[in-house]
Amino acid sequence: MTVHGGGEFMLKCTACGREYSLRKPYQRCECGEPLELELFKSVPGIGRRVWERFSGFFPFELKPELSLGEGDTPLIKAKKLSKELGVKLYLKNETTNPTWSFKDRGTYLGIHRALQLGFKKIGTVSTGNMAASVAAYGARAELETYILVSSTIAKEKLKALAPYGARVIKVHGDYGELYYKSLEIGQRKDIYFINSDDPFRIEGYKSISFEIIEEITPDYVVIPTSSGGLFRGIVKGFLELKESGLIEKLPRFVAVQAEGCSPICKAFNNGKEKIERFENPHTIAHAIENPYPPSGNAVLRLLRKLNGLCVAVRDEETLKAQEELGREGLFVQPASATGIAAIRKLREKGIIEENSRVVSILTGAGLKTLSHVEAPKVEECSLEFLEECFRW
Ligand SMILES: *Cc1c(COP(=O)(O)O)cnc(C)c1O
Ligand SMILES: [Zn+2]
User: What are the beta bridge partners of residue 123?
Assistant: First the structure.
């Protein structure tokens, strides 16, 4: 994590520090670890969009004609959950993004990067939210778009891709390997793959931190974590705010995983330096079910360096949290509810202090994962006797 020293920006390896020029589509270091832009140092200005107000923190001028209205999402103070958990709980509602998840913030930046390098084709590897996001922004930018999905993808998720007209390819074989294979093929076939932890996707995710700090200074930020891209983006945003003198101290960052697929928490809590592939992953929180996250080691390094926390939660706890968020008026998918389950655990253990300001990132919308949701209890009544139904 180095601050930009003036002159040309470089991509730097998050592990070994090796530098790469921005003129070529480098995405990972030769050592295998992800690359990242140096820390931006700037001052915010005015503007209706976060991209305008924080324009000095982004690597290029962001074009409104490529935007679908991502970002500037609501930060909602939870009423019942705040009281119940004994904290000031704020919910960053990312379900209001154009394709109903935070992925749109990163895709928006990724599209700029692809065009900057002169690509006419883009792609991604995903089973859900990122696929829809890249397909939508590819359509917006009129780029040929390739979506590589796993052979076990649910029909419900395939259908969500239909409107955008991207080419969808179902790949049989190891899904974890597909991430690396896609980058290789992309280089040969001139396709820019905007995968989960692309360096420019990370730049887009910083906008979440900027928006939070415009409203409150949190003590904790709780982040559902799969590939590690979102976690890295939010942390980088806060580091840049601190570097720029806009905040005095960093919040404590909490990475949340599902117990049935928690390679990062497992490595962190066992004092390991590297993550290992999580065998037989199984969780209802499919959006965070990556058994071998490409930014797993990078997240581990940040957790260690910044005194972060990693919490794994059980599916029952997640489903309960999803229901509780519903009672606050917010319908999120299971992956997005894991944060609430994690906060409850950390409160029970006395790790999060009473009355702390806690932000939980509600990463994606519940309407995308209706298959596990049961219909509510329904009462029936004839029109003729409708009024009788209101007697009690
Ligand atoms: C992608 C995603 C995550 C995890 O983000 P990573 O960048 O892969 O760590 C969490 N929740 C939802 C709903 C997502 O779509
Ligand atoms: Zn390296």
Answer: 146, 193
